[in-house]
Amino acid sequence: MADIAGERPDPDALLKTLDDAARQAVRGKLRVYFGSSAGVGKTYAMLVAARAQAAQGASVLAGIVETHGRRETATLLDGLTILPLKEVAYRGHVLKEFDLDGALAARPGLVLVDELAHSNAPGSRHAKRWQDIEELLAAGIDVWTTLNVQHLDSLNEAVGSITGVRVWETVPDEVFDAADEVILVDLSADELLRRLKEGKVYLPEQARHATRNFFRKGNLIALRELALRRTADHVDDDVQAYRRDRAIEPVWRTREAVVACIGPDADAEYVIRSAHRLSQQLECDLHVVTIDTPRAAPTPQAEQDRMQRSLALADSLGARTETLAGGDMVDAVVRYVRRHNITKAIVGRTRATGLQRLRLSVSALLTAAITPGWLWRRHSFADMLAAGCPEIDIIRLGAPPLPASAAPGRDPLTLGRRARSATDDRNGSPWAGYAWALCYCAAATGLSMLAFPVLHQTNIVMLFLLAVVGVALRHGRGPAALASVVSVALFDFFFVQPLASFAVSDVQYLLTFGVLLSVGLLIGQLTAGLRLQALASVKREADARSLYEFARELSSALLPEQIVASAGAFVHATFGSRCALYILGLDDRLKLASPAADDMPPLESALAQWVYDHGQPAGAGTATLSNSDLLYLPLKAPMRTRGVLALAAPRRSLFSHPDSRRQIEAYATLIAIALERLHYVEVAQQALVSMESERLRNSLLAAVSHDLRTPLTSLVGMTDTLMRQQSTLPPDIQDTIRAMRDQAQRMHALVVNLLDMARLQSRDTPLRLEWQSIEELVGASLAAMRESLAAHRVTVASLSYLPLVECDGVLIERVLCNLLENAAKYTPAGSTLHLHAAVHENELRVAVSDNGPGVAPGAERRIFEKFTRGERESATPGVGLGLAVCEAIITAHHGRIWVEHTPGLASGAQFVFSLPLGTPPPMHPETL
């Protein structure tokens, strides 16, 4: 076998490979038909392939095949040799199992053994069927079998948590991994459910039970994903074995894998955690390697302890760790990457110290001034690894973040604040730029002195111009102007005759000085302008990013407390400002959402209320109460103002700067929209709960009413029968019978109201609209309520002149009955009830008035709600459904119903309902 890497093969590895090949030559081959669940067609696919093998002359024996009553599957057994099953006696029963001895005695070329995870009957040679298959394979017989993903040992618990069904028959993963061939039999969830419904998986009763439990679409999708992933793992192992056998070195990107390359540096744990996050996102394996290079001196104890902690962290994260030996770090990592077919390598980058940054700056200056870049280029480990293994991705991490105590502004959310302040404190102090300008000029002078007199004075001028450009690019306009003036002076003092003097021997040098100064100032101005534009772009990008991050954070908030916490964190990170939120409560009053921070000035609730009422900002930086230490902004949402944001800035100029003010107002708008979103989510939830409660209550009312109606009808009939025979009964029994009859009729009326309410609100039954005379409907109502109105006097105005109205006569009669009964209930005996009707504009109004206690102020609409009663509810029987039924009926007729005080009386109530008038059909005279 050729060794492409140029290394000598390991003799032990070669012997092991030959020994494994010899064992595999005498061992049978195992093929597993693998699927996500029952019914995908594993047995069917196995039998189709077996018939093809038999047609080619192979010796095929059907050891045991479970058809589960499927006719299509049983048909495929025709023409195959079927091994009789062995009978095993167990507790008075005879169980049929796979005959292992019979299969060994027949010695076919191929045996079909269905259901690999099956448990054999007690008394069999092996407890599990996969153990029978192991014996067949050891005897040199090929075996084909089937297996579902839920029967794998490692996935059994995961499948149980997904489906809620725990499978107790399992197969060790080693058996599955050792299979020579795994064939995935796949079927979509919808297709499998269709097969289940058609009875192609289970019998009808079993299929219905399976659909309610295991065979749910979500379960099937999850099981399908597990089966695909497990098959991919097996195929990946086959790929690795093939690459090892063929000594293939280049990485095949068949599957993602990540390796983190660490050393004894302080950033090792940072690299491991970053690599772990990437592997989690890619859902792939993670490797962590380090290099054990030979050293003349022993490794310091601190580095050893740091490396041990890093490797322990990698183990805890589930990574595969390995310490590579060799003098060449790059070569060792390349060999490991190719051996394990890894596609991505993660390397770290240590943060440079102050001395290292100075050395890099000097190197860059020397590179640009004197030597070609390739002389100073230093190849990093990442560069050398990319050159040694160009087929993989090299990911070089940024330097690990400093601790909070060392770098308080390193939080990612402070990008906007850092960019905003970059123009005035980039180097700590405004005077630092001028100090750096002097340093640049000194460095240029030193380099020029080293090159003088080899270089002509013209070239030396270029070095000073380069220093001016560097100062302008790095530190701005003012330091660049200073560098221009100082450069002219230094050039004159050190390089123009007479030396060490500011005198000029040749007038031509004055032109040189003027050009150097002018060009330096011009270049400095242009470079500084470009720098400011770049800083402005960075600031705008940082502002947009902070707004994006804030909006994304608010979009996932489900509680007002989460919005408050996010607002406080982002506002402080972006502006360095503490904030507090006043949020509108359910009672439409402002409430402080959370206690203010200790370092905030005292809050002014009255000022916050003024801002909310007027919808205008107030406080610091505004025209209203500008002496306040806080800025109050209204949280204006599209529909209404949702609260007030109070901010305390570290400097008052923050509130007056236009860019900062716009950014703050954008934050306030995002907070307002988030609060309004939560408000409407809560409103929708309450509406949904109310609708569901109403639906359940109506269903309950309908069910109870139907169950009560039949016995009540019988009870009323029996009391009527007893009433006809009361003359033969004693007086006390007659009173009891009359009381029973009254209560039965009252209960019957209540049940009728319940049924009407349920029917009207469910809208199951349409209205039977016909043209009716209101006079006839009133007469029918009075006749029906004769007994209830016996103790009252009823006066009815003339109704004969009124037009016909299109309505459901039965339901409008029910409205009149309920109004008359309600008036009789709440007025004393002997009172007079009035009923009249009139046409008003395009509607017919019918009124029932009494001289009772009337309706309390403010309760005019509440009394029409279900289960609501008047002032005398303790003494008046009923459950408060009559008026609710009336309103439901009138609303269904597109009319209105209301209550008002009885005209002309100090007390009493008048209930009025209206029905729309239409165009009645023409009346034809009757023919005698």
From TrEMBL:
Q: What is its EC number?
A: 2.7.13.3
**Tell me, what's a Pfam family for it?**
DUF4118
Question: Region labeled Disordered — which residues?
Answer: 408-427
Q: Which SUPFAM superfamilies match?
A: Adenine nucleotide alpha hydrolases-like, ATPase domain of HSP90 chaperone/DNA topoisomerase II/histidine kinase, GAF domain-like, Homodimeric domain of signal transducing histidine kinase
Q: Which Gene3D superfamilies match?
A: 1.10.287.130, 3.30.450.40, Backbone structure of the membrane domain of e. Coli histidine kinase receptor kdpd (1.20.120.620), Histidine kinase-like ATPase, C-terminal domain (3.30.565.10), HUPs (3.40.50.620), P-loop containing nucleotide triphosphate hydrolases (3.40.50.300)
Q: Which GO terms describe its molecular function?
A: kinase activity
Topology within the bilayer: Multi-pass membrane protein
As its record notes, the protein acts as a catalyst of:
ATP + protein L-histidine = ADP + protein N-phospho-L-histidine
Phosphoprotein among the record's keywords? yes
Q: Which domain of life is it from?
A: Bacteria
Which terms are listed as keywords in the entry? ATP-binding, Kinase, Membrane, Nucleotide-binding, Phosphoprotein, Transferase, Transmembrane, Transmembrane helix, Two-component regulatory system
Entry protein name: histidine kinase
